[in-house]
Amino acid sequence: MNAILGAALNQIKDTSTILGEDYPDKKKFKEAIDAILIPQRVVKGKISIKRENGKRMTFLAFRIQHNDARGPFKGGIRFHQNVSEDEVQALAILMSLKCAVAGIPYGGAKGGVVVDPSKLTKSELKDLSTEYAKFIAPYIGPWKDVPAPDVNTDGQIMSWMLEVYEKKIGMQAPATFTGKPLELGGSLGRTEATGQGGVCVLAAYINSKKLKVASSTVAVQGFGNVGYYFAKIAKELGFRVVAVSDSSSGIYDPKGLDIDTLGKYKEKGGSFRDYPLKSGAKLITNAELLELPVTVLVPAALENSITKENMEDISAKVVFEMANGPTTSEADTYLHEKGIDVIPDILSNSGGVTVSYFEWVQNLSGYYWTKERVNEELKKTITKAFTDIDKIVKEKRISYRRAANYLSIKRIIDAMITRGRV
User: Are residues 247 and 124 in the same domain?
Assistant: First the structure.
C-alpha cells in the first residue's frame, strides 16, 4: 500500500473514532465504515494503440469507483507514468469526501493510464484517449459516472472521449464528461474555478475569525493555474499578496505584488528567477516562502510541502491548502497544537469539482449560465460548506481537517443508511 492510500484510509479510521458517538447502532455504523474503506468497483485492464512507427504499445488502465450513495461517481482521468492502482483508489476516496464536503450530489471516482504522454505524438495521444474511452464506456454515463480532466489531460481529451462514448450509445450525452470546451457544453468560469472557490472559502474564514481583509497578507507557493487565479482574485478582493513562487524561485515584496504583471510574464514563458525586480522586492527560495510571517500561507504546488522537516518554521496564522495533500499528517497535528489553523484541501480546493457539477447541471438541462451566475452559485455553495465545517470546529473543538472529514463521512454514511445499504 502506498503512502497516499494509507493516508486516505487513516483519515476515515481516525474520523470514525469521533463520528461513532452519533450512531446508536454501532453494528450498522461499523458496516458503513468498512464499506467506505473499499471501493465499490475496480475496473483495470490493458489498452493498446498502434504507434506511428507501426509498433503496438500496451498500457495499464484503471477506473475506480468508490461510493455512489450520494449520487453518480465523479472524478478525473490522469495520464502519467507513475499512476498506480493504490494512487487511483486513494484519489477516488478523497473525491467522495470532497464532493460530500462541498454538498454536491456525487460520489468519488478516479481514472488513470500508466503512460508518459510527452512521448506520444498528438495522433497517438488521440488514439490512447479513444481506447481508454472504449475501455470505460460500459461503466460511465450522466447518471453513472462523470469523468473529467486531471493530470496531463484537458478539454481536448475529454472531447475525443465524449465523441467515442456518444457513438457507442448512439445519442448526444454531453453530461457524461465535464471540463469540456465551451463549444461542446463546457461551463464558463471553469478555468479559474478552483482559485475562485478557494478565495471564497478564505473570505468566509477571515470573516469567521473577525480579521480584516486589508490587513491580511498572503503568500502563495506555486503559480500554475490554481496559484495564479487564487493570488489574482485574492488581490482583487483586497488581500495583500506579498509573495508568490514558481518551481525556480519566489518573489517577496512586503508592500504587495502586481499579480497581473507577474501572470503576463509567466504567460510568455518567463521564470521568476530572472524576473526584473522592483525596489523593495527580493528573490527567495520556495522553502523561505513557506516560513514567511504572513496571515495566510497557501501551498498551491506539490504534495508534502509542509513536513516534519520544516513544520516548526511555519509562522503563518493559517495554512490554506490549495494543492492536494501539501501537509503531512505529522505536520498537520503539530500546526494544530501550535494554534495554526490548516484549512484542508477537500474544502479549500473544491471549487473545481463544484463548477464541474454546475457544468453537468447545465448539460442535463440544456440551459447555459452566465459567468456571473456561475461565480455567484460557487460562492453560495462553497461558503455554506465552510460555514457547516466551522460550526463543527467550534462545537466539537477539533481541527478544520477533522471537522471536514467528520462532515463528509457522516453525509456518506447517512446516505448509505437511508438507502438501506447497511
Answer: no
| Domain coverage including residue 244 | 187-422
Residue 243: is its pLDDT beyond 90? yes
For 93-133, the pLDDT digits (tens) are: 999 999 999 999 999 999 999 999 999 999 999 999 999 99
Amino acid at 173: A
Domains identified in the chain, total number: 2
Active-site residue, from 74, 110, 180, 235: 110
Is residue 3 very low, low, confident or very high in pLDDT (cuts 50, 70, 90)? confident
The Cα 401–Cα 334 span in angstroms is 13
This prediction's pTM: 0.94
Known catalytic residue: 110?
yes
Q: How far is CA 351 from the centre of its chain?
A: 8
Q: Are 244 and 260 in contact (CB under 8 A)?
A: no
CATH code of the domain covering residue 156: 3.40.50.10860
Expressed in angstroms, the distance from the first to the final Cα of the chain is: 27
Q: Which three cell numbers stand for residue 138?
A: 460500459
Please check the confidence at residue 307 and state whether its pLDDT lies above 90: yes
Do 91 and 160 fall within a single domain? yes
